[in-house]
Amino acid sequence: xxxxxxxxxxxxxxxxxxxxxxxxxxxxxxxxxxxxxxxxxxxxxxxxxxxxxxxxxxxxxxxxxxxxxxxxxxxxxxxxxxxxxxxxxxxxxxxxxxxxxxxxxxxxxxxxxxxxxxxxxxxxxxxxxxxxxxxxxxxxxxxxxxxxxxxxxxxxxxxxxxxxxxxxxxxxxxxxxxxxxxxxxxxxxxxxxxxxxxxxxxxxxxxxxxxxxxxxxxxxxxxxxxxxxxxxxxxxxxxxxxxxxxxxxxxxxxxxxxxxxxxxxxxxxxxxxxxxxxxxxxxxxxxxxxxxxxxxxxxxxxxxxxxxxxxxxxxxxxxxxxxxxxxxxxxxxxxxxxxxxxxxxxxxxxxxxxxxxxxxxxxxxxxxxxxxxxxxxxxxxxxxxxxxxxxxxxxxxxxxxxxxxxxxxxxxxxxxxxxxxxxxxxxxxxxxxxxxxxxxxxxxxxxxxxxxxxxxxxxxxxxxxxxxxxxxxxxxxxxxxxxxx
Length: 485
Fold this sequence. Notes:
This is MFS transporter. This protein is an all-alpha fold.
């Protein structure tokens, strides 16, 4: 069991703990991917829900995330238990999410607006379970090690399993679901079981994880939210990550439409996803190396640029064919791999830095805000793509009553997965230039006894966690962070 007392700050995290933590990524990957990939298509093409209304229904439950994620973050920051502050919440999420996820796709025989309302309610319950799990889960890496580059290495394992999870979601889920209500019901139950196993696996797998974070969490919720809002580095990171998430969300929602209407092959959704996640399985060591050579900000700029260029190249698919489209998606996948790894490594840096200068444990507040915005933005991707389809005159249908789409709908399908996500992601690239929490800055941030450079960067493996957890506070939480920014 994990004690709530800080342990000496290791610069390395054991392989067993890395894998135990990483297995939880199946929850992150499956819940993030399947609703984004299939829920809009399920509603418009199986349940006969109008595209614009379906997009709104999928977005509305995310408004609840702004409340739920913030509360869960606060609660996990203040939790004291023999399991540590975060792990009890992993278990709570495992009790809620798998069941509600299965119910999303296993509803009564409804169509149109009643079907949309049922999906919306069950999606709300699933989002609540996801908040209980994901918010504390994302706060854990910042509390396992104080070393700047070790956080990237630790998260490398998480990203590899996320790639496997995305592959399962993007390849197996569409194959199981097909285009029938029974297929979607079977898929929901199957992946509900996978979610349960993954979430319990991470709970038990992190039982021996080191805890190097600050020991106290003081102040009101309003004060802690204010501290997060005054962290310029957190806000810039949240902004650039939101742009990346929105761009990926739009492309994700459009994938089955692109396969069906641009490539004329519904099964191409599977191969497109293989092209997307394949690079994630093999390029993670490359991105870890690039993060050391270019620093994380430079590597992030490179990854966002690759994503943008790959998306724009897909525009030529009608002229160059299906193989060309898959090659372009592989370029997108290389960039996406870097984006996924680096944004969470940078988030861990921001949390660790805040703990060092404030002396308080409030990583849950940061990850609560992060996850709430991330979920809302991801859902907005499906909403935005639904609006693009609506503008293009896309006609909803069900399997028994197929329709012929107008030419304008075909144009909207392609524009929605190319130009729209490319422009959004490029905006994220521009925002990355404003993020300045680099390795050098972290190593030289010590001022007036707030925290040693060793405590922030992890260069002193014996004392970094103790300084960050027990001796890192100023008289005013967050004062050094605001001054430094």
